[in-house]
Amino acid sequence: MKFTKAIALAALAAGFIATSAPAMAQDAAAEPTPDFTFTGNIALTNNYIFRGFSQTNGDFAVQGGMDLSHKSGLYVGTWASNVEFKDGATGLNDSTFEIDVYAGYKGTFGNSIFSYDVGAIFYAYPGDAGTGYDYWEFYAKLNADLGFMTLGTGFVYSPDFFANTGDMINVPLNFSIPIPLGSDTWGLSIGGQLGYNVFTETGVTWDGIHDDYWNWNIGLTVAITDWFNVDLRYHDTSLNGVACKALRCDEQFTAMISRAF
Prior knowledge:
Layout (H helix, E strand, L loop, with lengths): L1 H18 L16 E10 L3 E2 L2 E2 L6 E10 L3 E9 L14 E12 L5 E11 L10 E11 L4 E9 L9 E12 L6 E14 L12 E13 L3 E10 L4 H6 L4 E9 L1
Antiparallel strand pairs: 1-4, 1-14, 2-3, 4-5, 5-6, 6-7, 7-8, 8-9, 9-10, 10-11, 11-12, 12-13, 13-14
């Protein structure tokens, strides 16, 4: 069954992380932590891609978010971007924005290299005219900091995905490798993600044919300390054909400039 396959993939990825790392990390010097921390981010990208699908019909997007975290590990946040689903002309959907609201809890397993993040996120599309674009996702993520690289996996579940398409499962596996430059001003890293996505209800498909697919991306991120990051990335999926080209889920390239504060 597809559901069993997704769970097995998540377990395999988590096992890979666990067996690829030493048992304990070096103890770090404790530093005073404020009760609450507020952070934000802004970004400009030539194409907003979500799990291999363009959300802006291949056009530019302006994005930004805010997060409030408590030292206990609890956090809440929101994030927004413009979107374009090519259906405005039909009158079925007038939404031009996506607004995400999320909350969760994150922490580490003692003094180990492993960290976790569990929570829920609501994707809202104001003006969707009753097409059912709004949906919930619930997630559990596991990360490992190996020093020379970080690895992550997880399990994401939606009880009623975008446009009322029913149960959906996403299992990601991602990595990031910093490249030493010997500079306090410049940073460079290579990173990517492989994701498995499946509808668990019979008859629901992504492109009219397939009820599951893989997506992947890989790219370089250049960080300029106290200024901004530039990310250049290649995206693709296992879907293909005319339907995929219309949905913009074939190979795509993105360039993003972002700033965190």
